[in-house]
């Protein structure tokens, strides 16, 4: 028996929005520590890693480990049926081939249940080694999304150059070139609005713009985002999910002339 | 001479939105008791019945009965030109082949008139027998619209099952199955938000989802909707139109395996 | 060296919106008196004339006259990257083949620069003779936009008839006919909401609706619009641009049966 209850059902809606552009289907691995999902995107370039801890749920029970393969377009249809103040419960029997989503309205006068067929999906668990990163940038997630969206108009790849003073995003293409510079500013009033950089050594790396843009679909999950960069290892783009977990995206740098 | 004046011109806009998905053209029958419209939808499955009483208008004069066939797409173009606080006057001469819509702004500095050609349409007046219904459900119209929209994602037909305790809407399809249960709750603070059921005997009936969804285009007309159900007679979905009248939609149940 | 600084970068965004439907590319002529643009629209029917005075900028320097040909779709991509409270600086070297747009955030923690390649465009400077107009109508720009949009649903051309009492816009087509009458009302509380007419003699002229609709893309630039009409000369539709200049559109009347 698996059962997980979340008073804030909107969290699961936002998680789904954060992955469904990259993944058509995915396996949710449920154990007594929580729910995990790890998958390469549809074009096998970037990696998505989601972690929702069991203690972050309002109720959580998982008698036996269970892997639930889901079509994310179908799951999105179901989540669209939840109102923002509905309480969500996911349920599955051991060895079940379906999962049930129950939405209860705040006053409990409306109860909806949606039963979805599960899929058998190939699993690929990639070990992600711990790495000391040359630069770790924390910045407002909306600002990161804005920059990725703006630069995507001009070029296919974005160079991220990080120094103690700040971080610069650059691109160029047929129209011309574009540079966006953010200064480190730890002293702003609200921590969420600050740009901070932990630097071991400066880095300049080049990434495919369209994947960065897909990662920013997670923006509604968190007011801040953390970028971890080092030469020759994938960039990590991490969004915290309230007190319940995180979503991380991994993307290898492009090896080409634009990278210095 | 026919002349009808409506200070709240937005009512006619909403009436038009409530019928133009089902009907391409329609005949408005004007008499001294008011304006009536009755028509099968374009695919001849459901029936629309509209009634606007003469005493609901701010001024109303109809010397001779007149039937005005209108193209509803053309009428919609005209109604789009009305601002929400415009005063509307419809005018036609006896035996005229045009109708004129006059919109006056609140301060009368702007006066617009639109003259539209009328059409000769075949008329089919269907007698609708009075029926005692097994169940009459009153519920918030926005909730009904939400449920029809949600379930349409999963299946083509919706089973409505009504008992003393509440009403259940169900469907199923390729993705899986869905059930939405509303409990009777006459005791909520606002009458408009309550779900009430007058039951002679329980009923379970099956309806084509797409017609229910078309009916819910009338949602802006009224905060509540009334569903009248009995075995072997059409469902009636009724929206009151302020103090001026009502719109009713009739839809026969599907006869198939899913109906119990 | 050319450099122009505008604290309200949103003005340039709105100017661009006001011309990009009519023009694919355009030459901005910069001199020490300011920036001017004059061009026939893509179909060579109407004329756009833009004037931004140097003293309207927060900083302005133009050592040598410079004509900068720009692709307006590319420029629109760059302007989309400006936040509404960004400060904008345009820069170009003498004889340069690029122009640079710098956007600085209010707190200066974010600085973006976009360099765009310039184009060589054929120039056609048309002399516009001074004219005494038979009628000059001032009216709320949103009202003019609304009327042009409404009437475009019914016909391809709009007759504007102006007398001392007011101005009437008329059209007709397959559906029927439409007339919108505005009374002169100089006495309303807010000058921006008034309709005023300076008349030497009444005029009735006929114009192509689609061009009028393109002109109304300038509506966000100003709360009022001025229409100057005389027989046998082009209509002038003028929007003031704050304290910095104006945009004027010229459109010749249609010569046909509908014109009286």
From TrEMBL, chains A, B, C:
Listed InterPro entries: DNA_clamp_sf, Pr_cel_nuc_antig, Pr_cel_nuc_antig_C, Pr_cel_nuc_antig_CS, Pr_cel_nuc_antig_N
SUPFAM superfamilies: DNA clamp (SSF55979)
Primary site of residence: nucleus
Keywords in alphabetical order: DNA replication, DNA-binding, Nucleus
GO biological process, one term: mismatch repair
Domain Proliferating cell nuclear antigen PCNA C-terminal: 127-254
Domain Proliferating cell nuclear antigen PCNA N-terminal: 1-125
UniProt feature coiled coil, ranges: none
Pfam families: PCNA_C (PF02747), PCNA_N (PF00705)
Gene Ontology cellular-component terms listed: PCNA complex
Record family assignment: Belongs to the PCNA family.
Name of the protein: DNA sliding clamp PCNA
């Amino acid at each position: 028996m698996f059962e997980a209850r979340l008073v804030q059902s909107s969290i699961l809606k936002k998680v789904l929005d954060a992955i469904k552009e990259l993944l058509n289907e995915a396996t949710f691995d449920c154990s007594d520590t929580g729910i995990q999902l790890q998958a390469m995107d549809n074009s096998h370039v970037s990696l998505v890693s989601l972690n929702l801890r069991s203690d972050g749920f309002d109720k959580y029970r998982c008698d036996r480990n269970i892997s639930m393969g889901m079509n994310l377009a179908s799951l999105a249809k179901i989540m669209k049926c939840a109102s923002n103040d509905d309480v969500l419960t996911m349920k599955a029997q051991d060895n079940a081939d379906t999962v049930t989503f129950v939405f209860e309205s705040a006053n409990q006068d409306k109860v909806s249940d949606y039963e979805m067929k599960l899929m058998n999906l190939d699993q690929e668990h990639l070990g992600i080694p711990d790495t000391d990163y040359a630069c770790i940038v924390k910045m407002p997630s909306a600002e990161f999304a804005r920059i990725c969206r703006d630069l995507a108009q001009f070029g296919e790849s974005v160079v991220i150059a990080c120094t103690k003073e700040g971080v610069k995003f650059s691109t160029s293409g047929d129209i011309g070139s574009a540079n966006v510079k953010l200064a480190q500013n730890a002293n702003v009033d609200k921590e969420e609005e600050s740009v901070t950089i932990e630097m071991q050594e400066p880095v300049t790396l080049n990434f495919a713009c369209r994947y960065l843009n897909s990662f920013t679909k997670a923006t509604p999950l968190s007011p801040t985002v953390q970028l971890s960069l080092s030469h020759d290892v994938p960039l990590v783009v991490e969004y915290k999910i309230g007190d319940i977990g995180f979503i991380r995206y991994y993307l290898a740098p492009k090896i080409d002339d634009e990278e210095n």
